[in-house]
């Protein structure tokens, strides 16, 4: 399996952030079933701590127009809508099997009318979107995050929020764990993303050690 985009790398011991035990939001029975089924099949969906962070944040922000890059089977999109019931989500997924399963899950959860699922490459689709979006969850191929940044700055409204997932990658990015050779390029790309989003003028950013690392940015 190609883990260049995934959260879960089964070749690595599962490293939990110390706060994970306190961050275990639960959802309705149907979404919990979808999460369990995805976890059993090792489909890379956001971990519980990330879903907790996302839903607490969205409960406060109540964005109306959300963009997600990297749908997988729709877990994070459904979790986001559980926190802001009036929102609309545009979500992009390149894998056609995941996209089909996400659509079926959205139907099961009765949230399909609030979701536009675009099957395609996130970078290509992003260039065609107008926005403005008030919240973006960036969760597709990590190596591409830095390339997407100018387009993200274009489509996110002033004061809008960009949340990028997996930016610490098992402690490799901070140097807390030694990066295996096959992950070195990926780690370099993630470092470039963090450098760009923390030092440029488009965003104000904080990096948070929750889940597998989150970069929370506000558009200036
Ligand atoms: C970590 S998973 C997304 C998990 C999902 N956000 C959730 O938490 O339920 C990353 C997804 O991004 C997709 N992906 C990877 N590269 C992509 C690209 N260039 N364009 C669109 N989707 C991509 C993968 O197929 C995978 O489903």
Short précis:
By secondary structure, the protein is an alpha/beta fold.
List keywords for this structure.
alpha/beta, disordered N terminus, binds S-adenosylmethionine, 7 helices, Rossmann fold
How does this model look, in words?
The structure is a single chain. With 220 residues, the protein is an alpha/beta fold. The chain has one domain (20-219): Rossmann fold, CATH 3.40.50.150. The chain is 37% helix and 20% strand. The chain has helices at residues 29-40, 48-61, 75-83, 96-108, 122-128, 145-155, 184-199; strands at residues 65-69, 88-93, 115-119, 133-138, 156-165, 203-208, 214-219. Strand 1 (65-69), helix 3 (75-83) and strand 2 (88-93) form a beta-alpha-beta unit. The N and C termini lie far apart (38 Å). The relative contact order is 0.15. The chain binds S-adenosylmethionine.
Topology, element by element:
Layout: H1 29-40, H2 48-61, E1 65-69, H3 75-83, E2 88-93, H4 96-108, E3 115-119, H5 122-128, E4 133-138, H6 145-155, E5 156-165, H7 184-199, E6 203-208, E7 214-219
Parallel strand pairs: 1-2, 1-4, 2-3, 4-5
Antiparallel strand pairs: 5-7, 6-7
The structure holds S-adenosylmethionine.
Bound molecules: S-adenosylmethionine
CATH class category: Alpha Beta
**Count of helical segments?**
7
Mean residue pLDDT: 93
Summing up helix and strand content along with how strands pair, one would put the structural category as: alpha/beta
Report how far the terminal alpha carbons are from each other.
38 Å
CATH topology: Rossmann fold
Spatial strand order of the main sheet: 3-2-1-4-5-7-6
Number of domains: 1
Residues in helix, %: 25-40%
> How many beta-strand runs?
7
Beta-strand content estimate: 15-25%
User: Quick one: CATH superfamily?
Assistant: Vaccinia Virus protein VP39
Rg from Cα: 16 Å
What's the SSE pattern?
A: HHEHEHEHEHEHEE
Indicate the overall shape: globular
**Unreliable residue runs:** 1-8
Which assembly state applies to the chains in this document? single chain
Please identify, by name, the CATH architecture: 3-Layer(aba) Sandwich
Note the main sheet: 7 strands, mixed
